[in-house]
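Hi V.,

You were right to ask for the full record rather than a summary. Here it is.
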Amino acid sequence: MGPIIHLIGLPTDQNSSFERGAALAPPAIRAALWSDRGNLFAQSGLEIGTDVILKDLGDLPLSDVDCAADDALILQAVTKSVEADAIPLLLGGDHAVTYPIVAALAARHGPLNILHFDAHPDLYADFEGNPRSHASPFARIMEGGHAKHIVQVGVRTLNTHCREQADRFNVEILPIGNFEAAMVPILDGPLYISVDLDGIDPSEAPGVAHPEPGGLTVREVLSIIAKQRARIVGADIVELNPARDVNDITAIVAAKLVREIAVQMHQNYDHI
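Predicted structure:
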């Protein structure tokens, strides 16, 4: 019998820059996940609910105004999940939520290896005066000693400051030019996967606040996740902005990622 996977919604976008809206994402992803338009089978042939146990715990009652209080709720929920020997799979919300999630998991498992899909490196020391900005979570994670190594895939907006931050923290950013999925390493555990939906090209995932052309395909993201063999101790899918979505296509992509990541968590459960 495999692990229980806890699906937890994080309806917050208080740390978003430029445009808010990601707080509305968890219900949109759930609607696509449970919709009769599709089914609950993953590409491996395993089915959510039959072969893979996915328990939806609903959304946390986040204030979306008090970051410290919301961080505490997120940390508490993730800690409770791992204490129940479950694996948390979290639906953002903006990317700022990754910091308390990873902090909670590292307290249980030790520093993590992180596979991060994104158009942006999110390594700012202090973006627009907010050190908890959704543009800064991985700087906070590295400063806190919560990660051993981060591999970033899909980044195509790297500025001088974030390049310096990547060098400072030894973050591995794979070049997007002539990118192939085979370039992404197979990481050791404990492994955390963070998917910012704007890492995917806006032609396939238009419902984000910061669309950036020239991105990853959904097929590339799925292929990279499928080749990972380490135990996955947690994951997030963040930055869907339903107000910017077109025919729910990005919510459907996010739901597909829920299924595939949950199945990968199940398949990798006995690995180190």
